[in-house]
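Revision sheet: structure tokens.
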Amino acid sequence: MDTHLNFQAVPLGAAIGGPAVALGGLTLFFITEYVKDKKKKSSSFPPPPEVPGLPVIGNLLQLKEKKPHKTFKKWAETYGPIYSIKTGSNNMVVLNTSDVAKEAMVAKYSSISTRKLSNALKILTSDKSIVAVSDYNEFYKAAKRNLLTTTLGPNAQKKHGIHRDVMINNICKQLHDHVKTSSSVAVNFRKIFQSKLFGLSLKQAIGEDVESIYVEELGKTLSRQEIFKILVLDPMEGAIEVDWRDFFPYLKWIPNKSFEQKIQQMHFQRQAVMKALIEQQRKRMASGVEVNCYLDYMFSEANTFSEQQILMLLWEVIIEASDTTLVTTEWAMYELSKDQERQNRLLSEIQNVCGLNKLKEENLCQIPYLAAVFHETLRKHSPVPIVPLRYVHEDVQLGGYYIPEGTEIAINIYGCNMDQKVWDNPEEWKPERFLNGKDNTLELQKTMAFGGGKRVCAGALQAMLISCVAIGRFVQEFEWRLQDGEEENVDTLGLTTHRLHPLLTIIKPRK
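Predicted:
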């Protein structure tokens, strides 16, 4: 009845206007598609090869194993290094070689700089409020500048060096304690390393390694492990959650309650914990105690950001320092533990440089094999196998093909680093391939593990310092051997190269 009355109340002009607007919208759609088709035909470059798929859903069923980086590599063997696929209603071009990937990230950056986020990432990043997934705009440039000034740049890294030294010493002490009490039992490498790395990230971000905190919005006191779960583990899990509406944007009005509740709960808990941590440090600052950390700088110098942006930027420092460096170091120790010959070679080079002294950061430039171990691990086990999707916002030519506006770009780092035309026996872990006298900057670009061009990862230097010193000290102080059955334990988690199961090794102190 109400509907009938409302319909009668609509003026004649509006009643006519509705269909007219709809007709106009359809006309605009067809005109747009016509123009796109004309552009494509008029271009001197052909479109990329297409991977055959099904109507409506495209290639989604072929990606159901949730290891897209490996599927993309297999397709490259058939369709070439650059090809297009359909993920529902979305057009995506996949890049699988270093040359075309660098062309996209550097030479054609101005046309391919906009980030394309999943619904999960939109929520978990507060709609691009962190450096890693922000578009290249004024927010990105200001936030990255502050991050380099206070935390990740060369000068900032020197100031935070004391924290890294303490962290490595504490890990080594804990490993020695394990041997004294349980020498025949395999050590859970991740449990020890991850905890200390989290402590370092907290010190850099907020100035304090927190053991527990009362969170008013949750109504309870959280332990350090619970804080870690809410700030790091849960968001990492949530980031790879798939919402079917990502592939069919025209159906975004249909609710997906189970997905929304899960991600919103992660977001709410993360917000609550970060607010509690920040408020605790506000009290410290109000008492006149200053600390060299990101939070103090953001509240005293970076007054162009909102409270929510500051919260997210602080969280970004915590989660990124706590995860990607762990992935690289854990895989490096796995590879060295199963390869005694290369482990001994690394030990010999460290001893030649350091003698009986403990390895320090200033020794790294004198031990090329240690850098080679780091770079080869990044190549074979890149922490981010696929660069976060980018969006083509103007027609562009890429790799000799025409790529129309609106296309998604997936850069398959895994595929690039497993390219047999570039790497000899790419499935083999062989650090010697990096002993070519080039500097570390060039090697980082070669594996593209930290991106490239204007969007190169701000944390590359810190990751290298932490991982290289950790690997060197662990080999310097202990013999490493895999627990029986551990060599085949190489499954990874979801869309990442994060080991599904923690590394378990038998360690023995060096004499």
